[in-house]
Recover the amino acids of this structure.
Protein backbone atom coordinates (compact mmCIF):
# COMPACT_ATOMS: atom_id res chain seq x y z
CA UNK A 1 0.00 0.00 0.00
CA UNK A 2 1.49 3.32 -1.06
CA UNK A 3 1.80 6.15 1.44
CA UNK A 4 -0.21 8.38 -0.85
CA UNK A 5 -3.13 5.92 -0.85
CA UNK A 6 -3.05 5.62 2.93
CA UNK A 7 -2.95 9.40 3.34
CA UNK A 8 -5.79 9.88 0.89
CA UNK A 9 -8.04 7.42 2.75
CA UNK A 10 -7.34 8.94 6.18
CA UNK A 11 -7.79 12.51 5.01
CA UNK A 12 -10.93 11.71 3.03
CA UNK A 13 -12.64 10.05 5.98
CA UNK A 14 -11.55 12.77 8.36
CA UNK A 15 -13.35 15.21 6.09
CA UNK A 16 -16.43 12.96 6.09
CA UNK A 17 -16.43 12.87 9.88
CA UNK A 18 -16.22 16.65 10.20
CA UNK A 19 -19.03 17.11 7.69
CA UNK A 20 -21.11 14.45 9.45
CA UNK A 21 -20.69 16.17 12.81
CA UNK A 22 -21.65 19.54 11.32
CA UNK A 23 -24.73 18.03 9.65
CA UNK A 24 -25.70 16.33 12.91
CA UNK A 25 -25.57 19.59 14.82
CA UNK A 26 -27.63 21.35 12.15
CA UNK A 27 -30.35 18.70 12.35
CA UNK A 28 -30.43 18.89 16.14
CA UNK A 29 -30.64 22.67 15.90
CA UNK A 30 -33.67 22.27 13.65
CA UNK A 31 -35.58 20.12 16.13
CA UNK A 32 -34.93 22.80 18.77
CA UNK A 33 -36.27 25.41 16.37
CA UNK A 34 -39.41 23.32 15.77
CA UNK A 35 -39.90 22.87 19.51
CA UNK A 36 -39.47 26.60 20.10
CA UNK A 37 -42.05 27.40 17.41
CA UNK A 38 -44.49 24.99 19.04
CA UNK A 39 -43.92 26.55 22.46
CA UNK A 40 -44.54 30.03 21.06
CA UNK A 41 -47.73 28.85 19.33
CA UNK A 42 -49.09 27.41 22.57
CA UNK A 43 -48.26 30.57 24.51
CA UNK A 44 -49.92 32.77 21.91
CA UNK A 45 -53.20 31.12 22.82
CA UNK A 46 -52.81 33.12 26.02
CA UNK A 47 -51.95 36.39 24.29
CA UNK A 48 -55.56 37.45 23.86
CA UNK A 49 -55.98 37.39 27.61
CA UNK A 50 -53.05 39.77 28.15
CA UNK A 51 -51.19 38.46 31.16
CA UNK A 52 -50.91 34.77 31.90
CA UNK A 53 -53.50 33.60 34.40
CA UNK A 54 -53.14 30.96 37.09
CA UNK A 55 -56.39 29.19 36.22
CA UNK A 56 -54.89 28.24 32.85
CA UNK A 57 -51.52 27.19 34.28
CA UNK A 58 -52.19 23.44 34.53
CA UNK A 59 -53.39 23.17 30.94
CA UNK A 60 -50.50 25.29 29.69
CA UNK A 61 -47.91 23.17 31.49
CA UNK A 62 -49.51 20.02 30.08
CA UNK A 63 -49.38 21.44 26.55
CA UNK A 64 -45.74 22.46 26.94
CA UNK A 65 -44.94 19.08 28.51
CA UNK A 66 -46.15 17.29 25.39
CA UNK A 67 -43.95 19.50 23.25
CA UNK A 68 -40.94 18.77 25.47
CA UNK A 69 -41.68 15.03 25.39
CA UNK A 70 -41.58 15.16 21.59
CA UNK A 71 -38.33 17.13 21.73
CA UNK A 72 -36.77 14.56 24.05
CA UNK A 73 -37.80 11.67 21.81
CA UNK A 74 -36.68 13.39 18.61
CA UNK A 75 -33.35 14.39 20.15
CA UNK A 76 -32.74 10.84 21.37
CA UNK A 77 -33.59 9.23 18.01
CA UNK A 78 -31.52 11.71 16.05
CA UNK A 79 -28.54 11.43 18.41
CA UNK A 80 -28.56 7.64 18.08
CA UNK A 81 -28.61 7.83 14.30
CA UNK A 82 -25.67 10.21 14.23
CA UNK A 83 -23.69 8.16 16.75
CA UNK A 84 -24.10 5.17 14.44
CA UNK A 85 -23.13 7.14 11.36
CA UNK A 86 -20.06 8.52 13.10
CA UNK A 87 -18.87 5.07 14.17
CA UNK A 88 -19.52 3.77 10.67
CA UNK A 89 -17.25 6.40 9.12
CA UNK A 90 -14.41 5.00 11.24
CA UNK A 91 -15.30 1.46 10.16
CA UNK A 92 -15.44 2.51 6.50
CA UNK A 93 -11.99 4.06 6.80
CA UNK A 94 -10.45 0.88 8.17
CA UNK A 95 -12.25 -1.22 5.57
CA UNK A 96 -10.81 1.00 2.82
CA UNK A 97 -7.31 0.63 4.29
CA UNK A 98 -7.76 -3.14 4.50
CA UNK A 99 -8.88 -3.14 0.87
CA UNK A 100 -5.52 -1.70 -0.10
CA UNK A 101 -3.49 -4.02 2.14
CA UNK A 102 -5.02 -7.46 1.69
CA UNK A 103 -5.58 -9.86 -1.16
CA UNK A 104 -9.13 -10.69 -2.25
CA UNK A 105 -8.94 -14.01 -0.37
CA UNK A 106 -7.99 -12.31 2.90
CA UNK A 107 -10.18 -9.22 2.55
CA UNK A 108 -13.48 -10.70 3.73
CA UNK A 109 -11.96 -11.74 7.06
CA UNK A 110 -10.06 -8.48 7.40
CA UNK A 111 -13.19 -6.31 7.14
CA UNK A 112 -15.68 -8.68 8.75
CA UNK A 113 -18.31 -6.67 10.60
CA UNK A 114 -17.04 -3.32 9.39
CA UNK A 115 -19.16 -2.71 6.32
CA UNK A 116 -22.79 -1.52 6.44
CA UNK A 117 -25.22 -4.39 6.87
CA UNK A 118 -28.25 -2.95 8.64
CA UNK A 119 -30.42 0.12 8.26
CA UNK A 120 -31.64 2.20 11.19
CA UNK A 121 -34.22 4.90 10.52
CA UNK A 122 -36.59 7.16 12.40
CA UNK A 123 -39.07 9.89 11.63
CA UNK A 124 -37.92 13.04 13.41
CA UNK A 125 -40.64 15.60 14.13
CA UNK A 126 -41.15 17.76 11.06
CA UNK A 127 -37.88 16.65 9.49
CA UNK A 128 -39.14 13.52 7.77
CA UNK A 129 -37.29 10.22 7.80
CA UNK A 130 -33.56 10.09 8.48
CA UNK A 131 -31.78 6.81 7.70
CA UNK A 132 -28.29 5.60 8.54
CA UNK A 133 -26.75 2.35 7.33
CA UNK A 134 -24.35 0.78 9.76
CA UNK A 135 -22.45 -2.41 10.38
CA UNK A 136 -21.96 -4.59 13.43
CA UNK A 137 -18.88 -2.69 14.56
CA UNK A 138 -20.78 0.62 14.48
CA UNK A 139 -23.63 -0.89 16.47
CA UNK A 140 -21.25 -2.33 19.06
CA UNK A 141 -19.35 0.95 19.24
CA UNK A 142 -22.53 2.86 20.06
CA UNK A 143 -23.48 0.25 22.66
CA UNK A 144 -20.08 0.79 24.24
CA UNK A 145 -20.63 4.56 24.27
CA UNK A 146 -23.87 4.04 26.21
CA UNK A 147 -22.26 1.61 28.64
CA UNK A 148 -19.26 3.79 29.49
CA UNK A 149 -19.36 5.51 32.86
CA UNK A 150 -17.36 8.74 32.92
CA UNK A 151 -15.22 10.19 35.70
CA UNK A 152 -18.21 11.98 37.18
CA UNK A 153 -20.10 8.68 37.50
CA UNK A 154 -22.58 9.46 34.71
CA UNK A 155 -23.32 7.43 31.59
CA UNK A 156 -24.67 8.77 28.31
CA UNK A 157 -28.17 7.68 29.33
CA UNK A 158 -27.77 9.68 32.55
CA UNK A 159 -26.70 12.72 30.57
CA UNK A 160 -29.64 12.44 28.17
CA UNK A 161 -32.03 12.17 31.13
CA UNK A 162 -30.45 15.17 32.85
CA UNK A 163 -30.63 17.21 29.66
CA UNK A 164 -34.32 16.43 29.22
CA UNK A 165 -35.31 16.81 32.87
CA UNK A 166 -33.24 19.95 33.32
CA UNK A 167 -34.72 21.64 30.26
CA UNK A 168 -38.24 20.74 31.33
CA UNK A 169 -37.78 22.05 34.87
CA UNK A 170 -36.30 25.35 33.72
CA UNK A 171 -39.14 25.94 31.26
CA UNK A 172 -41.78 25.02 33.84
CA UNK A 173 -40.15 27.31 36.40
CA UNK A 174 -40.14 30.15 33.87
CA UNK A 175 -43.85 29.62 33.17
CA UNK A 176 -44.80 29.48 36.86
CA UNK A 177 -42.72 32.59 37.58
CA UNK A 178 -44.31 34.44 34.64
CA UNK A 179 -47.80 33.65 35.95
CA UNK A 180 -46.86 34.81 39.46
CA UNK A 181 -45.38 38.07 38.15
CA UNK A 182 -48.13 38.78 35.65
CA UNK A 183 -45.79 38.56 32.67
CA UNK A 184 -47.46 38.68 29.27
CA UNK A 185 -47.62 35.60 27.08
CA UNK A 186 -45.64 37.41 24.38
CA UNK A 187 -42.76 38.25 26.73
CA UNK A 188 -42.64 34.68 28.06
CA UNK A 189 -42.68 33.34 24.49
CA UNK A 190 -39.66 35.47 23.61
CA UNK A 191 -37.84 34.27 26.72
CA UNK A 192 -38.50 30.58 26.02
CA UNK A 193 -37.63 30.88 22.33
CA UNK A 194 -34.31 32.45 23.32
CA UNK A 195 -33.64 29.68 25.85
CA UNK A 196 -34.29 26.95 23.26
CA UNK A 197 -32.59 28.45 20.22
CA UNK A 198 -30.15 31.27 20.93
CA UNK A 199 -26.37 30.93 21.02
CA UNK A 200 -24.47 31.30 24.27
CA UNK A 201 -23.71 29.09 27.26
CA UNK A 202 -26.09 27.74 29.86
CA UNK A 203 -29.23 27.45 27.72
CA UNK A 204 -30.98 24.40 26.24
CA UNK A 205 -29.42 24.85 22.82
CA UNK A 206 -25.87 25.01 24.16
CA UNK A 207 -26.38 21.96 26.38
CA UNK A 208 -27.94 19.92 23.56
CA UNK A 209 -25.23 20.84 21.06
CA UNK A 210 -22.45 20.18 23.56
CA UNK A 211 -23.73 16.72 24.40
CA UNK A 212 -24.29 15.81 20.75
CA UNK A 213 -20.84 16.94 19.59
CA UNK A 214 -19.16 15.15 22.48
CA UNK A 215 -20.87 11.81 21.99
CA UNK A 216 -20.73 11.83 18.19
CA UNK A 217 -16.96 12.23 18.43
CA UNK A 218 -16.86 9.56 21.16
CA UNK A 219 -18.69 7.14 18.85
CA UNK A 220 -16.18 7.84 16.08
CA UNK A 221 -13.28 7.17 18.44
CA UNK A 222 -14.93 3.99 19.75
CA UNK A 223 -15.49 2.85 16.18
CA UNK A 224 -11.82 3.51 15.43
CA UNK A 225 -10.76 1.38 18.39
CA UNK A 226 -13.07 -1.49 17.57
CA UNK A 227 -12.12 -1.62 13.89
CA UNK A 228 -8.43 -1.63 14.78
CA UNK A 229 -8.64 -4.51 17.26
CA UNK A 230 -9.15 -8.24 17.16
CA UNK A 231 -11.84 -9.96 19.27
CA UNK A 232 -9.27 -10.48 22.05
CA UNK A 233 -8.66 -6.72 22.28
CA UNK A 234 -5.20 -6.69 20.69
CA UNK A 235 -4.37 -4.64 17.63
CA UNK A 236 -4.86 -6.16 14.20
CA UNK A 237 -1.66 -7.52 12.72
CA UNK A 238 -1.15 -4.65 10.27
CA UNK A 239 -1.62 -1.88 12.89
CA UNK A 240 1.20 -0.60 15.09
CA UNK A 241 -0.77 1.77 17.33
CA UNK A 242 -3.75 4.06 17.66
CA UNK A 243 -2.69 7.68 17.36
CA UNK A 244 -4.36 10.55 19.25
CA UNK A 245 -4.17 13.59 16.96
CA UNK A 246 -5.14 17.20 17.58
CA UNK A 247 -7.86 18.73 15.47
CA UNK A 248 -6.85 21.71 13.36
CA UNK A 249 -9.49 23.65 15.32
CA UNK A 250 -7.71 22.86 18.59
CA UNK A 251 -6.74 26.37 19.70
CA UNK A 252 -6.76 26.45 23.50
CA UNK A 253 -4.23 24.28 25.32
CA UNK A 254 -5.89 21.55 27.36
CA UNK A 255 -5.48 17.91 28.35
CA UNK A 256 -5.48 16.87 24.66
CA UNK A 257 -2.01 18.40 24.33
CA UNK A 258 -0.81 15.91 26.91
CA UNK A 259 -2.60 12.98 25.28
CA UNK A 260 -1.17 13.88 21.88
CA UNK A 261 2.38 14.08 23.22
CA UNK A 262 2.83 11.41 25.90
CA UNK A 263 4.26 7.95 25.16
CA UNK A 264 3.05 5.57 27.86
CA UNK A 265 3.17 2.46 25.63
CA UNK A 266 6.55 3.07 23.97
CA UNK A 267 4.91 3.48 20.56
CA UNK A 268 5.75 7.13 19.94
CA UNK A 269 4.24 10.44 20.95
CA UNK A 270 0.46 10.29 21.15
CA UNK A 271 0.33 6.60 20.18
CA UNK A 272 -1.53 4.05 22.31
CA UNK A 273 -2.53 0.45 22.72
CA UNK A 274 -6.33 0.09 22.61
CA UNK A 275 -6.72 -0.30 26.37
CA UNK A 276 -4.92 2.99 27.06
CA UNK A 277 -6.67 5.31 24.60
CA UNK A 278 -7.87 8.36 26.59
CA UNK A 279 -11.50 9.42 26.95
CA UNK A 280 -11.98 12.86 25.42
CA UNK A 281 -13.36 15.93 27.17
CA UNK A 282 -16.66 17.63 26.31
CA UNK A 283 -16.88 19.29 22.89
CA UNK A 284 -13.64 17.60 21.85
CA UNK A 285 -12.84 17.31 18.14
CA UNK A 286 -9.49 15.53 18.35
CA UNK A 287 -9.40 12.15 16.61
CA UNK A 288 -7.76 8.73 16.36
CA UNK A 289 -5.88 7.27 13.43
CA UNK A 290 -4.41 3.83 12.86
CA UNK A 291 -0.61 3.93 12.63
CA UNK A 292 0.33 1.19 10.16
CA UNK A 293 3.32 -1.10 10.56
CA UNK A 294 3.90 -0.64 6.84
CA UNK A 295 4.22 3.15 7.24
CA UNK A 296 5.19 3.88 10.87
CA UNK A 297 6.55 7.30 9.91
CA UNK A 298 3.20 8.46 8.52
CA UNK A 299 1.73 9.90 11.71
CA UNK A 300 -0.74 12.54 10.45
CA UNK A 301 0.33 15.14 13.00
CA UNK A 302 -1.16 18.30 11.49
CA UNK A 303 -0.99 20.32 14.72
CA UNK A 304 1.86 19.96 17.18
CA UNK A 305 0.82 19.50 20.83
CA UNK A 306 2.03 22.00 23.44
CA UNK A 307 1.77 20.27 26.82
CA UNK A 308 4.07 22.66 28.67
CA UNK A 309 2.62 25.12 31.13
CA UNK A 310 -0.83 23.57 31.44
CA UNK A 311 -2.70 24.23 34.70
CA UNK A 312 -2.65 21.52 37.34
CA UNK A 313 -6.34 20.74 36.70
CA UNK A 314 -5.57 19.66 33.12
CA UNK A 315 -2.52 17.65 34.21
CA UNK A 316 -4.73 15.88 36.77
CA UNK A 317 -7.20 14.90 34.02
CA UNK A 318 -4.41 13.21 32.08
CA UNK A 319 -3.40 11.23 35.15
CA UNK A 320 -6.87 9.80 35.74
Amino acid sequence: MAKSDFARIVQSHRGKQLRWTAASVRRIDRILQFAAADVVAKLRKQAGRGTLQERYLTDLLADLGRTLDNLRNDYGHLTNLHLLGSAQIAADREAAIAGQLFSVDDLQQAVAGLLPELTQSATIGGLGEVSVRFGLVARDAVNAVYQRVYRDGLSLSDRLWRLSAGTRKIIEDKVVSAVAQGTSAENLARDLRSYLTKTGQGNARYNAMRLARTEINTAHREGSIRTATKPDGTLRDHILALGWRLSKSHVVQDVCDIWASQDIDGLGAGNYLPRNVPVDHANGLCFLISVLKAHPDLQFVTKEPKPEGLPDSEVAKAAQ
Remarks:
- The beta strands are 118-123, 129-134, 239-245, 271-272, 287-292.
- The mean pLDDT is 85.
- Residues 85 and 132 are 6 Å apart (CA to CA).
